[in-house]
Amino acid sequence: MRRLLDRAVAASSNGIVITDPRLPDNPIVYVNPAFEKTTGYSMEEVIGRNCRFLQGEDRDQQALEELRACLREGQECRIVLRNYRKDGTSFWNELYVSPVRDDEGNLTNFVGVQNDVTQSKRTEEELKGSEDRLRLAVQSTGLGTWDFNPVTGELRWDDRCKAMFGLPPDAEVDYEVFLAGLHPDDRERTHQVVQQALDPESGGEFNVEYRTIGLADGVERWVAARGQAFFDEGGEAHRFIGTVLDITERKRAEEERDLLLAREQLARVEAVRARRRLALLAAAGTTLSASLDYESTLEGIAHLVVPELADWCMVDVLEEDGSVKQLAAAHADPTREDLLRELMSHRRFGEDSPGTVARVLRTGRSALTPEVSDALLVERTTGEEHLRALRRLGIRSFMSVPLLARGRTLGAMTLVSSEPERLYGEEDLSLAEGLAYRCALAVDNARLYRERSHIARTLQRSLLPRLPEAPGVEVGVEYLPIGEENEVGGDFYDLIETEEGRRLAVIGDVCGKGAAAAAVTALTRYTIRAVAMRQDEPSAVLTALNEAMIRQLGDNQFCTVACARLSSVPGGLELSVARGGHPPPLVVRADGTVEAVMPRGRALGVFLDPGLRVEHLRLSPGDAAVFYTDGITEARGPDGSIFGEERLRSLLGSCAGLDAQDIAERLKNVTLDYGEGNPRDDLAVLVLRVPE
Fold first, then answer.
1. How far apart are CA 366 and CA 258, in angstroms?
2. Number of domains present in the structure of the chain
3. Would you say residue 262 lies in a domain?
4. CATH number of the domain enclosing 416
5. Contact 643, 678 (CB under 8 A)
6. What tens digit of pLDDT does each residue of 475-531 get?
7. How many angstroms separate the CA atoms of 472 and 573, rounded?
8. CA distance to 293, 485, 631, 666, 686, per residue, from 493 (Å)
9. In principle, which of 6, 139, 518, 546 could form an S-S bond with 488, CB 3.0–4.6 Å?
């Protein structure tokens, strides 16, 4: 047995040295070949010497004191110290010293086992350098750092890390303290993540968020921890380091955001369903804003909610006469949509009608039936055919919500589920009510728009006169308002017969559009007509209009007007023209020559004295006077260029020989072509021509 033991010691890869403490200075009495290989000294060179000869001047006094204490007390010890080989090179020696005693307990020898840990020590020093650099880097952040040795159980936290566990800087910590500081609901989960990171199969990555309960202050905090475990050649974790970050404020903000979102949307906690509902509302908003034709819009909404929110859907609208019209119907199975339309012949909406939709229309309150029984169908239907149709369609759950806008019930939307997996609840009802509210506003706005459009068209017609027949004069008129359909344009024209048998031609442009412009237009036209009954001198007519506007209108309400008196003379017409800030009328002679009529005068409704003057001219057969608004000259092309007066003169020169209406139409069409069909202002043209 002794021989086998000697062979095992000799064959060991670790250096083994045996000393005899019974002899002076505890000399070496045996070394194995591995010791000789590691140190470079042969057995003959070291026998009888104390191990001190392996140490250099840079000896670690603390480690040596620990070793001497163990030797004095005859105890086991482990130290790491720097030794030197025979060739002078150093190495880090991990030395395990064990005492050997005889049967009576007397100390006979010390056995030291050497292990060259130079590479490990170098790696440790490099790691420590990296750790120091990391510590410097994280000092400028809110990160805390930790260092755990799974072998010894030693755990080190910096001050920030301790603060996240509610501990003072001088607190002692270990792994049990770490576990104790975790929230009870997160303790087991976090411990499992730690163990997983210490498993070499996991790669050593550590990434987890957990809550802490301050061990000293009792404060709950959220912490995000990131780390990395390091393994030795045997796959055992010997270092586990990382950082922690206090994310309490972020977590609180997230919780508050989620709570507010849930309250606002009345949606389920499940994010997927919430996103789908939001997408549905967004799509509905796009559909509702796409057109003012609410009939087709509601049809689109019915198809939008099927099958996302319902298996079939109907939308009923109250007409202005109180009747109910089933305006839209959609089914997940298109072959059954005809059956939905047939329901209208069976449904009743009177005061005594038992139907749910009838009650919703009467009360303006939603109705929710989470689960529908056949007995309920029998109770709510109007007859056997109605009941049979509903049974064929299948109803497991349904809700009917009113279309409410501005305190009025405009109709009802009914959503039905035929599937047992989809039973409606309060959250579904809330979503349906929100959708119905948007639909109701769309219906109400469309109806208001139609009403306003009708009023605007009626008012526009009232402001544009039917021109009287004018013997000896051709009259051509074109008018194009470019405002919204429910807005009144600001341009106007008129041809008035005076008591002296003459005529007064008027064209003007009022500042603005809509109701305000209509009021100014009406004042302008009727003032001119009233004054023309007493006298038809153009400057006097426009002066009276200017005085009326200043007295009756507020600031920033003005207009430009061109007024011409037509007097028959032998061989043609005589025109007396006054101009209050309006573009100058143009005269197209029979030979194509174009002349501008430019009497002085400023816009009306602004100045007490607009400085009006009158200019006279004669029209011969074939000549035409063209009155227009700035919608012609200020029309813009695609490149931003203005049509302008020069282009207008050139166009009119090519109109010689055309009758009055052809000239007016040509001006309008060329102007529209120039702007590619997108005029930016109202357009009015009045042409007076002496026939050839």
1. 28
2. 4
3. no
4. 3.30.450.40
5. no
6. 999 988 765 443 456 788 888 888 777 889 999 988 877 667 777 888 888 888 888
7. 9
8. 33, 20, 14, 18, 7
9. 518
Sheet holding 205-213, edge to edge: 155-157, 143-148, 237-246, 220-231, 205-213
Q: List Cα–Cα distances, 473 to 52, 115, 572, in angstroms.
A: 136, 125, 9
Q: Where are the alpha helices (DSSP H) in 504-643?
A: 514-532, 538-552, 630-633
Q: What are phi and psi of 346, to 5 degrees?
A: -100, -15
Instruction: Indicate the pairing of strand 572-580 with strand 367-369.
Output: unpaired
Our CA angle for 470, 475, 480, nearest 5°, is 135
Whether residues 344 and 491 share a domain: the answer is no
Q: If you count them, how many residues does the chain have?
A: 692
Residue 587's nearest CA partner among 479, 665, 687, 661 is: 687
Nearest Cα neighbor of 515 from 438, 458, 564 is 458
Task: Read off the tokens for 561.
Answer: 């007007």
357 lies in the same domain as 300: yes
Angle between helices 248-265 and 271-289 (to 10 degrees): 50
- The whole-model pTM stands at 0.43
pLDDT digits 0-9 by tens, 388-399:
878 888 888 989
Same domain, 430 and 507: no
557 assigned to some structural domain: yes
* Residues 112 and 138 placed together within one structural domain of the fold: no
Which domain-ending residue is among 100, 116, 132? 116
* Strands 624-628 and 586-588, sheet pairing: antiparallel
The verdict on 103 and 156 lying in the same domain is no
Mind listing the pLDDT tens digit for each residue in 42-81? 989 889 888 888 887 777 777 778 888 888 887 888 888 8
Which residue segment(s) compose the domain that 68 sits in?
Answer: 2-116
Answer whether residue 528 is part of any domain. Answer: yes
User: CATH number of the domain that 23 lies in?
Assistant: 3.30.450.20
Q: How many CA atoms are closer than 13 Å to the CA of 90, on its beta-carbon side?
A: 12
